[in-house]
């Protein structure tokens, strides 16, 4: 029995939506933004072609907005995680030695 091939979903042939952080989130919100913008414009103007254009514009704007917001937060989180890992390594390395900042603090308060 051949095993099923699990290929990830690639949008436009190159954007791996499944494995790229923030891609799925941005595409879904962009689609919702497209429907809301296009349908809202249609309700106010009853112009079909212009409403479709507004829907496409809404998709692009919402997708890019969500993408940049999510990627900014993702990068910020990665930086915070890296700093926390470095601090944990320092704590493990210096714990119990004369370079331990907590030991200096505790030693000076007992004198």
TrEMBL record:
InterPro entries: Cox20 (IPR022533). It comes from the Eukaryota. GO terms for biological process: mitochondrial respiratory chain complex IV assembly. The keyword Membrane applies. GO terms for cellular component: mitochondrial inner membrane. It is found in: Mitochondrion inner membrane. It holds the Pfam family Cox20. Keywords: Membrane, Mitochondrion, Mitochondrion inner membrane, Transmembrane, Transmembrane helix. Belongs to the COX20 family. PANTHER family: CYTOCHROME C OXIDASE ASSEMBLY PROTEIN COX20, MITOCHONDRIAL, CYTOCHROME C OXIDASE PROTEIN 20. This is Cytochrome c oxidase assembly protein COX20, mitochondrial. It comes from Gorilla gorilla gorilla (Western lowland gorilla).
């Amino acid at each position: 029995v051949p095993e099923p091939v699990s290929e990830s979903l690639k949008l436009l042939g190159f954007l791996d939506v499944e494995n790229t952080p923030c891609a799925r989130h941005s595409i879904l919100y962009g689609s919702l933004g497209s429907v809301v913008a296009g349908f809202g414009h249609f309700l106010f103007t009853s112009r079909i072609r212009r409403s479709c254009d507004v829907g496409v514009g809404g998709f692009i704007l919402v997708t890019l907005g969500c993408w940049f917001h999510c990627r900014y937060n993702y990068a910020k989180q990665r930086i915070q995680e890296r700093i926390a890992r470095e601090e944990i390594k320092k704590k493990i390395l210096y714990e119990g030695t004369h370079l331990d900042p907590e030991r200096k603090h505790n030693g000076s308060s007992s004198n």
